[in-house]
Amino acid sequence: MGSTVTDRTLIGMPWGELGDRFLTALVLWWVLSEGESEALAAGALVSALVAVISVRVFPRGRHRLRWRAAPAFVLFFTTRSIVAGLDVARRLLTPSLPISPGMLVFDLQVPDGAPRWLLANTLSLLPGTLSVELRGDRLDLHCLDTETDIAGAVHDTERRVAALFSVPPALSR
What we know:
The chain is α+β, with helices and mostly antiparallel strands. The chain has five helices and five strands. It has helices at about 15-30, 40-55, 70-95, 115-125, 150-165; strands at about 10, 15, 100-105, 130-135, 140-145. Helix 4 (about 115-125) packs antiparallel against helix 5 (about 150-165). The protein is globular, with a radius of gyration of 20 Å. It starts with 8 loop residues before the first strand and ends in an 8-residue tail after the last helix.
C-alpha cells in the first residue's frame, strides 16, 4: 500500500518526530556555536542529518516528553547539580566530615524506557549519588552518605521525571 499525504511522513518517518529532533539539534548547535550566524547553515544541514539518523537508530518510544514541564525540570536539575558539586568539594576540602558510603537498591516506579533512563542519569548528578546498575525496575545507587535521606531524594526526582513525561503519578509515597 502506497504512502499518502495523510500519512504525514517524510521518507517513511513521521514529520513531527523529525521536526522535534531537527529543532533540538539546531538549538544545541546554535548554543555550541555561541549564536554565530555564519554557522547556522552548516548547523541546519548537520541537524537535518542528525534528525534522520536518530529517528532510524532511536525510534520514538512510548513516552513523550512534555515540553511545558521541561523548564521546571531543567531548573531542578541545574540547582541540584550545583549543590552536588559544592557538596563533593566541601567533603574533599574538609576530610573530617562524616561520610557513610554504601550501596542502596531502589525499586523504581517510573516506566521502562526514556523515563527510567533519565531518572538513573539524573540521580548520578545529584548530591552524593551515582547510579551503578539499572536492571529492570531496580536501581543500584552508590551513595557517599547513606545516613542522609537518599530515599526521599530518589522519590522526589522520580516524581519530577514522571511529570516531565506525563506518566501516571503512582509515585506519591
